Amino acid sequence: MNRPLKRRDVLKAGAAAGVGLFGLRPGFLAGGQAPNDKLNLAVIGVGGRGGANLGAVKGENIVALCDVNKKTLERAASQFPGAKTYADWRKCVDQKGLDGVVCSTTDHTHAFVNVWALNRGLHVYCEKPLANSVEEARAVREAYLKQGGKVATQMGTQIHASDNYRRMVELVQRGAIGAPKEAHVWCSRAPEGGSYLPAAGSPPADLDWDLWLGPSPEHPYNPKYLGGCLAWNRFWDFGSGQIGDMGSHMMDMAYWALDLRFPTTCEASGTPVNPDTLPQWLVASWDHPANDWRPAVKVHWYDGGKKPEMPRPEFSRDALFKGVIFIGEKGRLVCDYGYRILEPLGDLTYFKPPAPSELIPPSPGHHQEWLIGCKTGEPTLCNFDYSGALVEHNLLALVAYRVGKKLEWDSKNLRATNCPEADQYIRKTYRKGWVLNG
Asked: In Å, how far from its chain's centre is CA 203?
């Protein structure tokens, strides 16, 4: 096996690097600005990751800021005094003259912001994960595809832009391990268990608790829900655990390198199912059909301290709590964000490294890929077609875990053909007044 990188891979990467392979689409920005003109952006969620994302796009015209925390919003507004401010993102996305939205809200509102913004023809950058259920991920992906290439989207899997990711993809797809057979992905981070938190008094005056809850069921205020993704994403109503959080990063490595799309089966196990909180550890597997360059492959996930068996002591990397092992018929490849170790099973005479012209070009930066895409129409590597399918794939493991069965998956119709009881976990029920496709 010596599979040359598909032309679409190189074109996408070249475009993301600013090579300009597709050229400018006239009038791609609102009002038909030239590609060097600044975008009119709304930044929704401006604390924590939102503050970092705001800093990454601050060179554009920041014309709207939104946050449910008044103090956080005021701090951001002091840097951009001309921006309109909002507590409710639904009002923010309706501001006239917007070109795009940067979404860094809590996980349970990501899909809502994404779909509403896309329905208004806006470019969208969204922190991972794109969604909080299988159905939400599909809704985001479909809302993007309905735009027919008129908008640029990017999920915030920032490491996707690293050179090490690109070299890993080239090694796997050019045949350094022969025909790939399986991949094992792990992240040792373990969430807490427990139950939904008790009432802890009234919310502070500067926090709109009702808007923080958004579409999720009613819960009394407790400050321990706040404070970043590790605080809220262990609860079913607010997050999707480590497979949703770190899985968006780590599974991305296997998803890109193996050119995956929708699985045919999924099974998972973990700590006993709790109606309030996600498992403290999860092990999952997906079967993927063959495509035009590789045979069928199996992909595995481990979190909460579970790990695959390391094929060699040198691969243990005990100091690192996450990684990927690719296993092929002629070798193995172990990778993380910043390293890769190739172990040929024999000599490497079968492997032809890609020529310089075939290398995936370096990225200008994850946010820059999106900004370039907004201004020129050039494709982004983590657009919502790719990342929507990735998140849908990952969250299917939580469905299999909750029903305790191996799912035979019909991706076209978004259902498990052998398990009708899975339907209740594929989709969510929302609070009155909240509409996903708004």
From this structure: 31
Is the per-residue pLDDT at 393 higher than 90?
A: yes
Which residues, in sequence order, are CB contacts of 122 under 8 Å at separation 6+?
A: 93, 98, 99, 100, 101, 151
pLDDT > 60? residue 17: no
Q: Which domains does the chain have, with CATH numbers?
A: 7-158 (3.40.50.720), 160-191+240-361+384-417 (3.30.360.10)
Check if the beta carbon of residue 395 is closer than 8 Å to that of residue 244: yes
Separation of alpha carbons 325 and 309, rounded Å: 10
- Does the pLDDT value for residue 24 go beyond 50? no
Asked whether the beta carbons of 192 and 277 are under 8 A apart, the reply is: yes
Its pTM surpasses 0.85: yes
Average confidence (pLDDT) over 182-200: 93
Q: Would you say 408 and 400 are in contact if contact means Cβ atoms under 8 Å apart?
A: no
* Number of other residues whose CB lies within 10 A of the CB of residue 409: 26
Give me the long-range contacts of 259-263 (CB less than 8 A, separation at least 24): 259/6, 259/173, 259/291, 259/293, 259/294, 260/288, 260/297, 260/299, 260/393, 261/288, 261/389, 262/389, 262/392, 262/393, 262/409, 262/411, 263/287, 263/288, 263/299, 263/393, 263/396, 263/409, 263/411
C-alpha–C-alpha distance, residues 325 and 310, integer Å: 8
| Rounded-to-integer distance, Cα 381 and Cα 154, Å | 7
Crossing angle of helices 163-173 and 7-16, in 10° steps, is 170
